[in-house]
Structure formats: structure tokens, C-alpha cells
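Friendly challenge for the regulars: who can give me the C-alpha cells for this chain first? No prize, just bragging rights.
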Amino acid sequence: MGDKSTSVQEEYIHPRSYRDSARLHMQHWIWNNLLGYCLHPSVPKDQANIKVADVACGNAVWLLDLASNCPSSWSLTGFDVSTAQFPHAAYLPSNVSLKRFDAFEPVTPELVEAFDVIHLRALCVVVKGGDPSVLIENVAKMLKPGGYIQWDDFDPDTFIAYSPSGSISKTSSDEIIKTWANSAKQLNLNFGYGEPSLLEEAQCCTSNLLDRWLSTLPSLLEKVGIFTLQKHRFSSPSSKLRKAATDNWMMALEETMFVILNRGGEEGEKERFRKLLAETVEDTKAGVGMWIDFLSVMGRKGGL
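First reply, four minutes later:
Bragging rights claimed.
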């Protein structure tokens, strides 16, 4: 079977370029600073032969970080629908392997209940129509009874620009965020919104949150037998992270918008976006920042 990277790239909102990979490294640094760990401390590090999967691993930055801080007997496997950002096999630790795998396709028999720990990050940019049901069900199938899941994601509904002073305008920054969100809808990416079948069954949710799968993720996981141990929402950056977070989202905005526009933007739209981007850069030089809430859910599968 040939690599599906070309067809996959036509569906993905990021370009999988070296700049995109660099952004993922910076984003991982931000995550570690927010959480205070790479892998949640509820996973016992003194156990041998633990099998870990990183689903939608990208450039494997999370997995490689974990490899330097876990027993060498642990087996670490990264899965992604594209191999474009995988490091060369020669640079991987002996207990790390990377494989092409589409988490929205049926789980193959060898992956059923194969992992003690599964990590996911930033799946909001690949869940179409706001329905994560297939993804969640597949991950549950891959996890052993008693296994752990660490799901780190973003809540794009909280994407904001903020200004240090009322005298410093953030008009262009507000406009570029609005443009980005509206353009993403062309790809059926509603991010945290939708009406998935699992959400319809989630009784604990208030009605105004019923179509926000990211906000109800613990309830969705519980429906497939994964129970929440801890959850975090980081709603504002520390002084240490303000610049890094803003740079990260500026890079993401620039990359994703040009991906979208290259797939069928109207005449003159690219030039209008370049102008808006330049204005937004000036906003950030004046002190305007950007933030999206970071969400993290740590769960454990029942059945021990």
C-alpha cells in the first residue's frame, strides 16, 4: 500500500512544512510549561514494559520528550495519517517507532487493547463537522482495560486577541481571527462545535454546551468507558508564555490561512489576507497578544 500523504494533505489545515514542525516544538514547550509534565504523574513510571501510543503524533515531539524521561523498557509508538513530519528512523531511540495510521479508520486487530497509555493532542483541527465519535470509539478500542488516556487540546471558540491598554488597537487582530474561523468552515471544520451522536447521549451537559464536543470531552470519554481522573482548562497566559503563545498562534494563522486560500480562495483574497496579516503583526509589535484556552483531560479505562 502506498503512502497517502498527498491525499491526506488535501484534507489537513496545516502545511506540514519545516516551519510548521518548528511551531509544534514551540507549542510542546508551551504545553509542558502549562501542565508541568509531559506525561501525567498518575501513570506509574516504575512499571516496566509499558506500551504507549501517541495518536496524531505529527513530528513526534511529545513522544521523543517522553522517551528521555521514561524507562527504556517502555515501547513508544507514534501514529499519524501522514509520515511527512516524521524524524528519520536513524534519529529515533531504540524503543520509539513511528507508523502511518488513520485514527478515523477501523482499528486493525493487532491494535485492539494494545496500549497501556494513549496520548492525543490538537485533534480539534482534524475533527470534521464537530463529530469526534469515531475517533473516541477507536481510541477506546486501542486502550487496554485499566489503561490511561491523556488528551491535550485547544478550545478555538475561546480564540481572542487582547491588548495591554485601551489606547492600543487590536482591530486587525480581531478581524484576522474572525477571518480564520470563517474560512475554516469551508473545510467543514467547526472546531469545538457539532452535534455528534455521543454528545446527544451526554446527560451531564447543559443545553447551551450540547454542541461543544471539546467542552464535554470527559462525558464523551465516559460513554466509552474512560473515566476522568483530572481535567484542566488554562484560560490565560502567564507573563512567561504571552510572547510564545502569540507567536505560535500568529504562525498557525498565517500557515492555515494560506493552505485554505490555496485550495480555492476568491481572486484578491490572498492579497487582502497578506495586508491584514501585516497589520496584525504591527498590532503584536505594539503589545497585542493572542490566546486560546488549553484543555487537558486525563482519564482511565475501566474493566480491570
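Strands lie at 51-55, 75-80, 96-100, 115-121, 143-162, 226-234, 289-301. The chain is about 35% helix and 20% strand. Your move, everyone else.
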